[in-house]
Recover the amino acids of this structure.
């Protein structure tokens, strides 16, 4: 077994104590006169042992205290050295500060009992006030260093606990900041995708058509649609940039889109999908007399319809794209977009799948239910259906059947 390397401060304490003890011994300064061992050199043995134990006061505190106690008792049979007693007090202090928690709890009580026992014993033996002085010295050598070590250890533990709490608080704050940044980036990604993707998809489809078909009328119509979507996409980008920049100069942020704009959104999709054989129909059965929906719900529903129409322009087979918006008896808002499932003839725009992820995130943030996938309609046709249930306040969050 390899012993721990002594600490530098412990080596300095041991060397300093030994040097002072040797100096006092050379001048004949002792603590006692009439002792069983009369050889002057015998005083150096407990001093040397105590100095040796001081080197391991931090690495082996229990061993140092045990051997130091034996050396102190042996010192009482010689002329004695004040430095030996002082170094013993340091060993008691170190045993409490650097020892195990069990030792730190037991040493103050043990030294206190020893102090009381020594005082009572000498009072019974001598029956004079000198016994109280001996008890006081015993307490100063053993009990007082132990109590001081306990106080220092408690303060260090409190400081460590406070530092740990501060580090944990800083870590939690950093985690909250990171989560807030991630959530904000996700929100910005959803907004950017939903605002611009439909315009860019229409541009991609019509530009491919213009390049692949040698028909001046078709080319002119495609270029017209490309220009309209470019202008609208640029306007959407400018509004988004205006919201993100603090120094944009806008007096007020741009108003968020609402379900009242579904008619215009469907009409725009119809214009973009005319060359692909797509038609669009909107069925909004919401009661007009009911109070307005919460802004987050309206924005989520609008973006879901917008992204679904964009996906239909990219991937749907020729046919009707149906948009249905309704309120359930429990007050929840339902949004459904169905399109024909199958290969789309002619040019297609590539998709990344981010749209479905964004729609699902929007619904999840509101505590709703989201479904997207192939289904069979009542007339037996294969369709792709996107359906979202957005609760209003406290409402049922369980997904219902896709049709109904």
């Amino acid at each position: 077994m390899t012993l721990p390397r002594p600490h530098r401060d412990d080596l300095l304490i041991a060397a300093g104590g030994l040097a002072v003890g040797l100096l006092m011994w050379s001048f004949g300064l002792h603590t006692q006169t009439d002792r069983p061992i009369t050889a002057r050199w015998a005083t150096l043995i407990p001093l040397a042992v105590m100095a040796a134990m001081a080197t391991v006061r931090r690495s082996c505190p229990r061993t140092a205290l045990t051997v130091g106690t034996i050396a102190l008792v042996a010192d009482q049979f010689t002329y004695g050295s004040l430095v030996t007693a002082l170094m013993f007090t340091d060993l008691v202090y170190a045993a409490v500060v650097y020892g195990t928690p069990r030792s730190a709890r037991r040493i103050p009580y043990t030294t206190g009992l020893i102090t009381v026992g020594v005082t009572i014993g000498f009072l019974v033996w001598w029956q004079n006030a000198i016994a109280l002085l001996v008890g006081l010295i015993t307490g100063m050598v053993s009990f007082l260093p132990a109590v001081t070590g306990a106080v220092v250890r408690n303060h260090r533990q409190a400081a460590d606990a406070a530092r740990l709490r501060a580090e944990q608080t800083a870590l939690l704050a950093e985690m909250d900041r990171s989560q807030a940044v991630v959530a904000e980036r996700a929100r910005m990604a959803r907004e950017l995708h939903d605002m611009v993707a439909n315009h860019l998809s229409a541009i991609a489809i019509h530009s491919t058509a213009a390049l692949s078909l040698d028909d001046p009328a078709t080319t002119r119509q495609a270029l017209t649609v490309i220009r309209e979507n470019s202008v609208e996409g640029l306007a959407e980008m400018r509004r988004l940039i205006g919201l993100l920049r603090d120094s944009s100069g806008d007096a007020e942020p741009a108003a968020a889109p609402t379900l009242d704009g579904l008619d215009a959104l469907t009409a725009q999709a119809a214009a973009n999908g005319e060359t692909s054989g797509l038609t669009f129909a909107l069925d909004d059965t919401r009661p007009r007399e009911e109070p307005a929906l919460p802004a987050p719900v309206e924005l989520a529903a609008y973006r879901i319809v917008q992204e679904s129409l964009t996906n239909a322009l990219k991937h749907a087979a020729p046919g009707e794209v149906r948009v249905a918006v309704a309120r359930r008896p429990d007050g929840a808002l339902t949004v459904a977009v169905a399109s024909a499932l199958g290969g789309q003839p002619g040019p297609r725009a590539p998709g990344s799948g981010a749209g479905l992820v964004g729609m699902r995130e929007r619904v999840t943030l509101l505590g709703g239910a989201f479904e997207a996938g192939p289904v069979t309609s009542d007339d037996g046709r294969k369709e792709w259906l996107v359906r979202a249930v957005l609760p209003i306040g406290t409402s049922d969050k369980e997904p219902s059947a896709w049709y109904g």
Remarks:
- The chain has two domains: 8-170, 259-404.
- The chain has ten helices and five strands.
- Residues 8-170 form one domain.
- The longest strand covers residues 319-327.
